[in-house]
Amino acid sequence: MIVSDDRKISELKNFMREAKSKEHPDSQLISILHKTQELYGYLDQEVMSEIAKEMSIPTAHIWGVATFYHYFNLKPTGKHVISVCLGTACYVKGAEEILNSIRQELKIDFGQTSEDKLFTLQEARCLGACGLAPVIMIDDKIYGSLTPKKALEIIKSYRK
Ligand code: FES
User: Fold this and answer.
1) Fold of 80-157
2) Handedness of CA 81, 45, 40, 69 (dihedral sign)
3) Domain extents in the chain
4) From the CA of 33, how far away is ligand 1's center (Å)?
């Protein structure tokens, strides 16, 4: 059971307690989901039920929010998460070619994790670095002005 990890669940519960003390607790849901993903790497069903209980928010509402945002992972991810930006600025500068080369290299599509569990591929809609288009983000690090070749070199450097 994932919620039996005492350290993580008690950190999350403290975070929720603080959120509840704020003026509009229900508007804190996104930051709670961020915290959950930071702790667990994805939004686990069991943990989501804990959030629903603690915050008195219907589970269906929480799932609605979680599935609306591409940022949230609903399944366990690989060690590194690669987000490929397909926002307009990146798209016109060749994001699709970059995406295709990554797909071929890792043999995965959006929402999937490579066989070696090293990479999960995600789609993003503008990573806020349009001036550097086309852009990918690996974990929290942005890489810009990419070509398919550069993108693959960067990915290879995460294999070492
Ligand atoms: S469109 Fe890709 S960073 Fe903005």
Assistant:
1) Glutaredoxin (3.40.30)
2) positive
3) 2-68, 80-157
4) 23
